[in-house]
Amino acid sequence: MRGISIGSAARPAGAICAGCGWCDWFAPALTDTQATVEMQCAVEHRHAVRRGCPLLRAGEPLQMIYALTRGLLKTSLADLEGRVQVTGFSLPGELVGIEAIAGGSYPCNVTAVEDSVCCGIRYADLDRLSHGNGALQNHLHRAMSREINRDHELMFLLGNMSADERVAQFLLNLSARYAALGRSAACFRLSMSRREIASYLGLKVETISRVMTRLNGRRIIAVRGKDIEVRSFEGLQQIVGDDGKRDVAVRAIVPH
Amino acid sequence: MRGISIGSAARPAGAICAGCGWCDWFAPALTDTQATVEMQCAVEHRHAVRRGCPLLRAGEPLQMIYALTRGLLKTSLADLEGRVQVTGFSLPGELVGIEAIAGGSYPCNVTAVEDSVCCGIRYADLDRLSHGNGALQNHLHRAMSREINRDHELMFLLGNMSADERVAQFLLNLSARYAALGRSAACFRLSMSRREIASYLGLKVETISRVMTRLNGRRIIAVRGKDIEVRSFEGLQQIVGDDGKRDVAVRAIVPH
DNA sequence: CGACGTATTGAGTTCATTCAATGAAAGTGG
DNA sequence: CCACTTTCATTGAATGAACTCAATACGTCG
Fold first, then answer.
1. Fewer Cβ atoms within 10 A, N terminus or C terminus of chain A?
2. What Å value separates CA A3 and C1' C29?
3. What range does the domain containing B199 cover?
4. What pLDDT was estimated at residue B242?
């Protein structure tokens, strides 16, 4: 029920799959052909996950770390009362499951928001291969650290921003990530439901709707259902606090 | 102005400092005496940071990763308008600075909440030493992964919980961490200001005060300024949604 | 002691929520 | 393929939890 491996018989183990999330991920770290081939062979390619289906379930033992090859995933945390926090949406090229390393089991549910394709590697293999390869190890450290930074940014949003700011920030963030993948920064599809966006942003569905229609009315975005066109990036940036960038400048108070 | 190294002249490099955050941190990973000594030598011990003083400033290049040996630190993110999100409080034995690995510079400010002692290791050294040592590398991975999990829990709190729940959860969390350090789970000192607690929990100072007095009135806690006594753990747990534990049970919806 | 930052408490406001109703879209099965 | 059901999205009205503003008490430090 985890999804179906496509073409694993037809395709020899280690063959490069088109736009493979893992291959793209470790490519910048590995100049060595030998190491590249080893990694490619360790990856189980093209694991399909249908929309709405789980890739990882909270509580299950850590086996694989996945890289998203195609589609869209959400990572979420639930409590017994049914309250849910979506902690992130993953785009192609991003890793999922690394947060399981600490406890040995996945702490979050990871679910496909669109029909998706993931490539996985056994954590044991990743571990083993990175032991012998400093560049790879470093690359992994950086990925985990980046995840922490992303989480901190979401905390900031959840702790400090108004509904309008949250939605604007969300759209800018998605836009930038799509642009980095070579897609349009202005036009994209919010394939996740409003409820999922709401959960991610710490708001309710109705609030998302209201903000969206407000932004639409102000001609900052054009909404047609799940399709979004950003008509004014400045407009969005203005909403996120007149500049929106995190302050790297030092404002530390040094008493005594 | 980063603090003062104490006794670095009197103490030979690598000597074990009492309750050293780093030594305690890597001890469980290293059975090998040789590796242990190497690590101990690489650590710059007993870096004192006075209350209110920064240990790390956002924007500065990554040099050291610190482990807290004594005291209390806060990690925070600020924007240009002066809004601040405290992303975490660090207790002895915990690492700070690992989130800097991704970008090569510290993304957060880390400040001493109490007079503190930190032990640091150059990231380059940590990196080098962990290359040759799988156990150490793994230990580091786990620490980073744990940080991601902590962040996810705070996101859940910020996105889903009422003011009362947030404060109750905060007290339970601190209590458990103090207990794990061998201190009292029931009586402890909230040495951070109400403002800092508020920032951490995504609330305002006044709200913290109100919730505290409310809990005090219900005999769930006893508050005298910064000193807290938990009088009813069940009371706190009940507030955090009748059980407070994250749901590991599967509630995934599998359509089709 | 006096002064400044911190904490508490009260009164009034606001923004996001809840509740409710309708419309749109998507999946199901005859 | 169409009717049926279900889920999702939008909109409106009323509520409420946390906020802002303001005033007072507490504590810490020079």
1. C
2. 25
3. 162-253
4. 60
pLDDT at B45: 85
For residues A43 and A63, state if they share a domain. yes
Q: Per the domain annotation, does A174 fall within a domain?
A: yes
Number of domains in chain A: 2
Q: Flag if A102 and B245 touch (Cβ within 8 Å).
A: no
> CA-CA distances (angstroms) from residue A120 to A231, A242, B210?
38, 41, 49
Choose among B85, B145, B246: nearest Cβ to A79: B246
Q: Which of B188, B35, B198, B192 is nearest to B114 (CA)?
A: B192
Q: Do B141 and A101 make contact, defined as CB atoms within 8 angstroms?
A: yes
A163 has a chain B CB within 8 A of its CB: no
Res. B7 pLDDT band, cuts 50 70 90: very low
Last residue within a domain, chosen from B99, B131, B153: B153
Burial B89-118 (b: 16+ CB within 10 A, else e): bbbbbbbbbbbbbbeeebbbbbbbbebbbb
Q: Which residues of B touch A52 (CB under 8 A)?
A: 253-256
CATH for A114: 2.60.120.10
Quote the pLDDT of residue B32. 85
Q: Has residue A241 been placed in a domain?
A: yes
Q: Give the chain A residue nearest B157 (alpha carbons).
A: A85
Mean pLDDT for B97-105 is 97
Nearest to A252 among B57, B199, B201 (CB): B57
Whole-model pTM over 0.70: yes
B240 found inside a domain: yes
Which chain B residues are Cβ-neighbours of A58 within 8 angstroms? 247-248, 250
Residue B51 host element (H or E): none
**Residue A75 and residue A128 in one domain:** yes
Residue A73 φ/ψ, nearest 5 degrees: -115, 155
Which of B115, B131, B153 represents a domain boundary (last residue)? Answer: B153
Hey, how many other C-beta atoms are within 10 angstroms of the C-beta on A7?
A: 11
Q: Evaluate whether residue B14 is within a structural domain.
A: no
Same domain membership, residue B147 and residue B91? yes
> Over the stretch B197-247, which tens digit does the pLDDT of each residue have?
999 999 999 999 999 999 999 999 999 999 999 999 999 999 998 643 443
The helix (run of H) or strand (run of E) holding residue A49 is strand A44-49
Q: Chain A 8-47, CB below 8 Å of chain B: which residues? A: none
